[in-house]
Amino acid sequence: MLNFNQLKSLKEVGTPEINFAITKLPDRDAVVVGNSAGQLVEFDLSVDKPQPRSFQTAHTSYVTGVVSSQGGLVSGSYDRKLIWWDPLERTVLREIAAHDKWIRQIVSNPDGSLIASVGDDMHCKVWDAVTGELRFVLDDHAAITPQHYPSMLFTVAFSPDGRLLATGDKVGHVAIWDFVEGRKIGAVESPGMYTWDPRARRHSIGGVRSVAFSRDGQTLAVGGIGAIGNVDHLDGPARVELFDWRNSLSIAELTDTAMKGLVEQLWFSPGDTHLVTAGGDNNGFITIYDLATRKVAKQEKAHQHLHGLAVDEASGKFYSAHHGRVVTWNIRDEQPQST
């Protein structure tokens, strides 16, 4: 049984790179991370001292997304490519020039049959995970901010039933899509995620960095950062806004000044009892909210900035990707000692 009060680090593996993305491999206690060297690296976390096993070199810039799918592992990168991999041989199966600018995130749908990718060309693209065929291009995000600077499309998420998508951008605009029909069905706005400095540097920071649908599909969580005093640093409060997305209605704001920074990852627990948030500034954090009270139920400092989070409900573990580290976390009741 999941028990978030038991949240604690079980194992930490140091790496020389920044790890931006992580996925758990099916049926074994192993993960693949994407890093700042343009690599995919596997770690077998079932052994005492996991050793890195690198995939065939293919990306030429930061790997910002990696997911398991019916077609194998799929990764996305600032080099604008999606690459399909054989997870056992760690070799390339297919490469696609997917976006015209940096790819910011990729996700798979619940059954692994589809991949969605978003990039700074402001497109969300939905791909067949087995064939690599492009199924839809979903466009609703402005390429230019209100201050006439380039925007970014940071994040995308499928709903638990696999029918809906949400996409979020730098200025706080979130679009909701029925991708089965390829049409937009809703939108919410979270402008508090975006800070513009009109005087010192004419610079902006923040944006919607994570989105997630509740298990019942009724609530959309939007994660980012609150107002920032110095736009050269992530010194704003970690911020999550909850929406009744069907009515474009904000229903709660969750802010945290104890552990500041970007909320990079969101996950609703079974039964929608808790919301897991993770991210950071120079330091990382995992903060778990009780959704009945909307108060912090559990919070742990994590090694440096946490970029990626994978959840394995069956084993009761989180797997996180950081600057210079991969970490396994416990989220289940401790097993009683045998006598």
Key words describing this protein structure:
single chain; 339 residues; mainly beta; Methylamine Dehydrogenase, Chain H; 6-stranded antiparallel sheet
Describe the structure.
The protein has 339 residues and is an all-beta fold. It has a domain at 140-302: YVTN repeat-like/Quinoprotein amine dehydrogenase (Methylamine Dehydrogenase, Chain H). It has no helices and 28 strands. The protein has a six-stranded antiparallel beta sheet, with no helix packed on it. It has a four-stranded antiparallel beta sheet with strand order 5-6-7-8, with no helix packed on it. A hairpin with a 5-residue loop joins β9 (103-108) and β10. It starts with 7 loop residues before the first strand and ends in a 9-residue tail after the last strand. The relative contact order is 0.14.
Strand content: over 45%
Largest sheet: 6 strands, antiparallel
CATH architecture heading of the domain at 140-302: 7 Propeller
What is the terminal separation in angstroms? 22 Å
Average of pLDDT? 94
CATH topology of the domain at 140-302: Methylamine Dehydrogenase, Chain H
How many E-type strands? 28
Q: What structural class is derived from the secondary structure elements?
A: mainly beta
Topology readout:
Blueprint: E1 8-24, E2 30-35, E3 40-44, E4 53-54, E5 63-69, E6 72-77, E7 81-86, E8 91-97, E9 103-108, E10 114-119, E11 124-128, E12 134-138, E13 153-158, E14 164-169, E15 173-178, E16 183-189, E17 194-197, E18 203-206, E19 210-213, E20 219-225, E21 238-244, E22 249-256, E23 262-268, E24 274-280, E25 284-290, E26 295-302, E27 306-312, E28 317-330
Antiparallel strand pairs: 1-2, 1-28, 2-3, 3-4, 5-6, 6-7, 7-8, 9-10, 10-11, 11-12, 13-14, 14-15, 15-16, 17-18, 19-20, 20-21, 21-22, 23-24, 24-25, 25-26, 27-28
